Each structure stands twice: as C-alpha cells, then as structure tokens.
Amino acid sequence: MGRLRLGVPYGLLPVGLLSSYAKQQKENSPPEPVIRLVRSQRAGNIDEDDEEQGAKGGVHPILKVDAIRFLYTFRNQLTKQQLLAVLPLLIKALDDSENYVTYTYAAIAIEKVLGIRQNGQILFAQADVRDFAPQLLGVLMSKIERAGTPEKIAENDHLMKAAMRVIITARQTLIPTYQQLLNRLVAVLGVISKNASNPKFDQYIFESLSALMRFVTSGSPTTIPTFESTLFEPFTIILMQDIDPRLIKRYFLLGHDELIPREGKDEAYDEVMTEIEELEEGLEEALKKFEKSLGMKLSWWHSAVGTEEIYMIETSAGQKNIPKEWTRNGGTKVEAREKRNTAIKKFKFRIYNEFDEDRGIWLRAIRVFAKLDCLFSLAKSSAAIGEPSCRPKFVGEEEGDGSAWFDFKSLRHPTLCVNGSVEDFIPNDVKLGGDVGKIALLTAENGLFTGLLSTMSGCTPPV
C-alpha cells in the first residue's frame, strides 16, 4: 500500500497564542525570538536561548518544550545528519534547563532519537555518539542525583531510561570513562534500594549496569575485577535488606504490566518470536523486490503500537507512478504479532497455574514469613526506640485457648518518649483476644485509629 505521511505541527497553536500575548505586552519590540523558534521548530531544531528570556520577552519555556515535542513527534522524518545536528541542542536544553518539564522532555527526545531503527537496524552506531556520550551521561546522572531522597530520585524514570539508551548506543566507547559512571550508578542504586518506589526506574538502572558491564568487559576484559569489586558490596547489602521484588529480576522481565519470558524459558513464546523474525526477514526481501521492479526508493513505516498496520510501505511525498493496486497490506505480520501477545498472556497464566498446584505449601510459607516479618518488625522497633521501651514477651499455647491474642500495658508513642518536655503523659493499655473480645472497633467518629490516637495524644480519648 502506497502511503504518504503528512502532518501539521500542532505546536504552532501555543506558539501563536504566546506570540500574540507577547505582542500585547510589548508592542514596540519585534517578535524575532518567536519567529526564529517557529522556523527552527519547522526545521526540527531547538532554540538556544536560555529560559530567563521568557521573563524578558524572549523564548518562553513552553515554546522550548513545544519545539522538543515537535522533534520527538516527527523524528522519523528527519535524516541521520539532521538528527546528529540537533542532538547537541537537545543536550544543551537538558543541561541548561532548571525547568522539570523542559529537561524531562529533552531526555525523552534523546532516548527516542537514539532508539530509531531503519530497516530493522539501529540508526546510530557507537561511533556516532563517541564525542558527546560521556558528557550526556554526566548531565543525566547529575539531574538524577540532585533529587536527593529515594522517592524523588526514582520519580523521573525518563532520565534513567535515557542514560540506559546512551550506554547501549555508546558501548565500548565508554571504556575510558566507565569507572566514574559505574560508581555513580552504584551510588544511586544504593539510595533507591532504601525505598524502591518506581519499578520502571529500578528496571532501567539494572539494565544500565548490565549493559555497561557487558560492553566494557567485552572490549576490555581487564575491567572485570573492577566491576566485581564495585558491585559486590552494594549488591550484598541490598540482598541482606528486606528484598523488594521490584529490585530482583530473575527469569523474566517485568514491564508494562506484562510478564515477558526470557529466551529459553517458554517454548510457545520462543516459537512465536522465531516466526516474527522470519517474517521480518521476508519483509526486507519483499521490499528489495519492490524497489527493483518500481525503480524507486522505498522503506517500511513501522508504528510499533498495537497490532494494526504495523508495517506499511512508505514513499517520499513527491513520489509519482505509485501502483494503483496498492490499496491494502497483508495481515500475516499482524497475525504473528497477535500470536506474540497471546503467548505472553498464556505464559502469565501458566506461571499462576504452577503456583496454584502447590497452593498449600505456598500458603503455609506465606503464613510463616508473615509471622517472622511481624517478629522482626517488633524486634527492630524495640531496639531502635530506646528507653522507655520493652521487648514483647511471647508465651506458649498453655496461656490461653490456643488462639492468637495480645496484651499491651502502658503504651507510649516513641516521639513523645524522647520528648523530655512531656511530663504528664498518660500511657494506655490495649488488649485483644484471650479472655476479652477478639474484635475491636478501630475507628472513632472522626476516622482515627483509637488505639493509635491514645498513644500519640498521651491521654485517654473521650468516648
């Protein structure tokens, strides 16, 4: 099917609105910055003015973001030379901007540009990014590190994904500077392991470490001891902590709410992927035959979204003599892609069924670990609180009817215990099970947990 791809830069609407606003604010000043940005946007370039000009009648951050979005949207229509020319401007927008939205969009655009494929091959080789890859990785890591807390660091997974893409693209060219990057990645991993709040960020940082180790050690085997000594200690610490399942990936990749089996782990999935690879090879052969018979340059347009119109033949906008019979495209590749999605879904349910076969064992294991988790939590809390505190006394089944119960005397909230100015603290007793009721009303009329409220307030709550 012949297909001409046309589009209107939607970003021109906010450009027009902002230029109108600037004209109202300052009628006597010529609108060159806005016009220049519109022109650069049409050419796929990023304006180099800094954000402070937005307050001086110059380029507003929204215009920068809009230009980056324009480039992101139409990246597949630009040549490799044009993309290489615009990458330094994207890096500058990433580095110079303090605006969260601006540098995030810049990181997204960089990752997407470096991930472009043409004819099934990655467009950019390691030689193409050799000159700016270390600088770009340094900028990305600085943006990640300055967030501070584990939650804030892991919040922006787009930055980590961009760093992963740069490492995968740069490969062996990172050997001269790999050690500094390795240390920074390990430091970030140590911080986020304290509170793994974003599975995507966790995945990208592990993929980054894996790619860095793979490419650097393959190009320079003498670096293996450095990786071993650098990674052993932090990984040991993580494994000794309470393991978050989002930090440990073993047999399959976890992403986009799908369980994707690794190669060799699921026969049905491997068969479908082999079929897809064979069909892609057939597509390339068919494309060459079309080019030879029609005498024109053709390429595949690939959406990579869903299963509809995944591959279509693309021609230039001015191409003539397009065959009239090109009215539909075959559904073979669509069918294979749908088989892949079905295989992934079936794999997930097969995993569930395997667990379900030994449900009794898993249920007992969960109960044991749940009790151990409670015991360890109580022990850690008691040791960390200091005085006044006590360690709970665990009694046998002979005291009671064999069911679970607890009996706490003189409960105190730890924040009030360490406050020396609180002299009239009234402790509270809480008992549940045994010779009293097994069910307690946990909320008062205002929705607060009554037992917790009593220990925090230091007084008996009103009835």
TrEMBL record:
Pfam family for this entry, one: Cse1
UniProt xrefs under InterPro entries: ARM-like (IPR011989), ARM-type_fold (IPR016024), DNA_mismatch_repair_MutS_core (IPR007696), DNA_mismatch_repair_MutS_sf (IPR036187), MutS (IPR045076), P-loop_NTPase (IPR027417), XPO2_C (IPR005043), XPO2_central (IPR013713)
Domain named DNA mismatch repair protein MutS core: residues: 131-419
A GO term, aspect molecular function: small GTPase binding
Superkingdom, taxonomy of origin: Eukaryota
One of the GO biological process terms: intracellular protein transport
Protein's name according to its UniProt entry: DNA mismatch repair protein MutS core domain-containing protein
Source species: Collybiopsis confluens
